[in-house]
Each structure stands twice: as C-alpha cells, then as structure tokens.
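Limitations
The structure tokens in this dataset are predictions for the assembled complex, not deposited experimental models. Users should treat interface geometry with appropriate caution, especially where small molecules or nucleic acid strands are included. An illustrative entry is reproduced here so readers can see what is and is not provided.
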Amino acid sequence: MLACPDCDLLLRKVDIAPGAVSLCPRCGRNLDNPKKDSIDKTLALAMSGLILFIPANFMPIMSLNILGMEGSGSVYTSIIAFFGSGYFFVAAILGLTSLIFPFVKLVLLFTVSICLKIKLYPTFLGNLLRCHHHLDEWGMLEVYMLGILISIIKLHHMAHINYDPGFFCFVGLLIVALSSSSAMDDHLFWELIEKNKTYGT
Amino acid sequence: MTTTDTEKPVTAKDAGLAVCHDCHKLVDFRNISASTLSCPRCGATVHLRYKGSLNNTWALVITAAILTFPANLLPIMSVEYLGQKDLSTIMDGIIYFFQSGSYGIGAVIFTASILVPCFKIIGIVLILLSIHFRWRGWLRHKTVMFRFIKFIGRWSMLDIFVIALMQVLVTFGSLSTSGAGPAGTYFTGVVLSTMFAAITFDARLLWDS
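Predicted assembly:
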C-alpha cells in the first residue's frame, strides 16, 4: 500500500520497470519512477560534482575588458561584493542558495550513495537523506546559470567578454549536480535504509 | 496503480493512515490518539494533516503580498557612470531591455521577477480561498497548479543573481560601477516567503472537502 503525498489517495503498490513512471490517477502526481543502476550513477555524479565544485565557484567565470580596464568575477566574489555593499540579508541568502546548499547537497548525496554502495548502514543515514530532501529546492545552481547567461547578453555589446575556466567548470557542475539528483531513486534508497536498519523505532 | 475502491476513492486518512512527507512511507495512526507520530523509517514527524497549515500559509502569502510593493517601487539596482548615479527599479530595467531591442531577455526578466511572484501569490490565495469556501471543482488542476508554484518558486531569484554578477563585473574604478539597491532585500523577502508558503501548505487539504 502507498498513499499519494499530494491528494492522500490510498493505492495498491505495483512494481514497474526501471525508466517507467507511475502517476497518481486522481491528481497526476509522480509517485514512483525507478531508475537503473541508481546507486552507481548517483555516486559517480556526486563525486564529479564535488571535484568540480571548488573551481566552478572560486575561479573567475568571465572577465571583460572596457577601454583597457578589466573586470572579472566568480560566484564567490559576487557574494562577497554583496556583503561589501551592506545588504547582508540578500548576501546571506545568495551565499546559501548558490554556494553552501549545492555543496551540502552534493556531500549528502555522496555520503549516502557511497554507504549504500559499500553496504554500510550507519544509523544517521536516514537523517542525511532527509536533509537532502529538505534542501532540494534551496540549491539554485540552475538559476545562477541563467543569471550568468543574462549577464553575458547584457554586457556583450558593451565589452569584449573572455570566458574563464570557472565558466566551463560551472556549466559542468550544473550538469553533474542536476543529473545526480535525478539519478537518485528515492524509493530504492529508502527501502535499502529501512531493510538494513539496526536501531529501534 | 489502481484505486482500492472504484466507487468512492479511499484516502489514507479514511483508513487511519498517513503518508510521511520525507520518505513517503505509510504510517499507521489507528488506535493512536495523537495527531503526529515519528516516522518509523526516517524519523520525521508525520502529520495526518500539517498543523496550522492554512494559517501559516495565509500569513506567509500576505507577507509576500505586502513586500511586493517596496520590492517593485524602490530601486533594485544603481549604476554609476562617470560620476552620475542612475537608480532603476525592476520595471525600469525591463523597459530598458525592450527599448534597446533585447526583447527575449526583457521577457525572461519580466517573467522571473514580475509574472512569477504575482502568479505565485494569486495562485496560493486562490487555492486557500477554494478551501475556505469549499469550491470543489477543478481539484486536479488546482493540485497541478500548486506543484507548478512549488517548482517555479526559486526562479524568481534570477534578478538578484544577475545584480550580484554585474556588481563584480562592472567595476571600472571611477568610470562605472554597478551596485544593488534597497529593493533587493524586499525582493528576496518576497521570494522566500512565497517559497515557505508553498512548503507549509498541505495539498491534501484541497481534497478533504
């Protein structure tokens, strides 16, 4: 048995093939979509995300040249600049959503999938997966990416833009981070954690 | 997947069960008088329905509606060019794009900064009103709309990210500098409160009536 989280309809659980999707017949919510090799894929993608994270956020994304004067920026310096101009609240939200939450999400995903891979089930595993679930919508890498693209369009007729290594790392990080989240099979992960739970309720 | 009863749909609540919103496990509430339980699988607090969901969502959505005014009326960006300070609101920036012929980018910013926040506030108010006045039609559409509101919530932050980048890219000593304006704080407030409003809202309440 299972229930739809959105409309509370009680349903009989059916097993579906990897790649297929089961939807709630009443409200259309995606209930289950098992994935193939979910643990391996999630682990590999989360690991690549962690490797790309530092260069993507701390190396300059692009630099531009106007009349011999150069300006360049990375994700990190753009947050620091906001702190510098005195808007602490905005700067803090910016830092959390574009730097800290994406990093924490990758670390959590990496830890959970490597534990499942080597069949190690510490008691805090469920808590880590829960944290990841709650942080899901607060990591905003893809919004930042659109922000980068808009800045490029905004500036390209004003100045010559050089794309720095940070730009390519950021694009890579975005692709890897998004696919690591979508490679994760929630149901499988939770079932494995439940099956190997060693502590009481 | 098939419903257990084709005549009248049975909800988990009718059967004395509740679904855990963190790990989606069904938790048994039968023979238990409490309205919350700790999920045996993940440890999250499971509610038959979120406590005070409607009140919290109302409060947050009203906060967002109030903050929308300073967010749109105060300048969000200041550009200094050759010592001349130029303050612009969100709408000024969009109009500038349209005047300079960048229709696509103007439309993107208009969608993210003005359409999406308004749509979110109006959509959530509509859903809340339909619960209060028991409008039973279009339930599936309202649920889909709610999921959409949850999904687009984060995209409103776009303008803030653009300003942050411009701030570091366009700094050429005294020639030209670009900075944030006071509306940034209010605008972030609008985005945060609408996102929290979507989180505190329990979609199951729509279907209870």
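Some entries come with short summary sentences. For this one: The mean pLDDT of chain A is 89.
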